[in-house]
Each structure stands twice: as C-alpha cells, then as structure tokens.
# Entry
Amino acid sequence: MKFDVIGGGALPELEIRLVHSEKKARKAIRRLEGREYEEDWKSLVGRQATTSFLRVPGSEETIYLVWMTPCTDYDAAVDASLLAHESVHVARHYLKSFGEESPGEELLAYVVQDISLYLIERHFKWKKKRISKQ
# Structure
C-alpha cells in the first residue's frame, strides 16, 4: 500500500493514507506491525473510523493509516466530522513525534487543517466514485 506524503516546509513530512477497505487496512497493519496488532484492530466493534499509528520496519518513522467505514449513506457533514476527529488523533501523535508535547493552539490548528483537507478530499473522491457505480 502506498502512503501519501503531506506537509513539509517548516515541519517534517507526514506519511498518511485513508482507506475504506477493512481488508486493505488489515493487510497494511499486518505487514507493518504484525498479526497480533491486526487482531487487536479487528476486534474494535462499532467504529465508523479509526487511526493506526504504524512503524516503518527498521525505522523510528511513523506512518498514519486512517480507516473509514465504506458507507455512502452518511451526510457530508457527518463524513467531515468523522474525518476531522481522526485528523486530531493524527496531528497530536505527529506533533509529539518530534517533541511538540504541548503544541500551541495555532500550530495544532494548522496541522489539523492540513490533515483534514487531505482526508476529506480523499474521502469525497472515493465516495463520488462509489456512488457513480451504484
């Protein structure tokens, strides 16, 4: 699975991927973290979206995998709010990864904004494609 790179500039790049396929998510988790972590992830019930922080083998680098339930029936506002929620998880972990334990409000807001933009754009491309096939 290919992860996309966002950010850069004044802050380190961030590798992230949004998937709607549980099979793809589990495969990436198993490949990067192992079968035990995949089983823990699989046991989460009732989730609409979740974020996994995955280590690149042989590296200290973290990549972010966001999985969202493959539902085309949610209202756009619900979709956006779910992805904004996951963006906060990614942003907090990402900032902590390079020493920003208590980031300022503005820094956190900009990082959440960039991550939300990426996730929401990817999701609505997926949703548009999925709806056109119905």
Notes: Residues 4-133 form one domain. The helical segments are 22-33, 35-42, 76-97, 105-133. The mean pLDDT is 90. Residues 87 and 112 are 6 Å apart (CA to CA).
